Amino acid sequence: MARIYSFEGAVPVVHPTAFVHPDAVLIGSVVIGAGCYVGPLASLRGDFGRIELRAGSNVQDGCVLHCFPGADTVVEEDGHVGHGSVLHGCRVGRDSLIGMKSVLMDGAVVGEQAFVGAGSFVKSRFEVPARHLVAGSPAKVLRELTADEIAWKGNGTAQYRKLAQRCLTGLLPAEAATEVTAGGPLRPGPPEHVTLHEYRSR
Q: 3-144: CATH homologous superfamily?
């Protein structure tokens, strides 16, 4: 079970079909919806405002979600938040992608099916148009997304929904082996999701 803390009577809520890694931290006014995935070392701290992950969304390893008093941080349905990102008092629209190590500031709104490029800084109150790519520091609108790019993102998020279910039954504490046995550690089968570059080359 994750490290879960009530704060001044507010207790985090986690849907039974969601997976929250045991090394993630949930504090106070936090709501995790159906089928969500929260990765290791993620911190969702609802001590000032409310943090909400809606159904099918994922927040990956090392992400931080927080906000100013009275504000909310919301990741809408099927939102996809890459490793190490920081979301502070912002809203991530339905089926959108936040690239790894991005920072979204207070009042920023990411439109549905939009992409924020990895390592971007989205300034306060900036609005990312639906189905567009933004990137940079500060982030700027670069172009409209293609149908293929949106489909690629949808497949990636579907893999995280599957991973949440796999982890509910397949993730167990273990002690490391002292040597590699015949065949080595188990490897997954053929990838169900590839990089965007590989996807485009198919």
A: Hexapeptide repeat proteins (2.160.10.10)
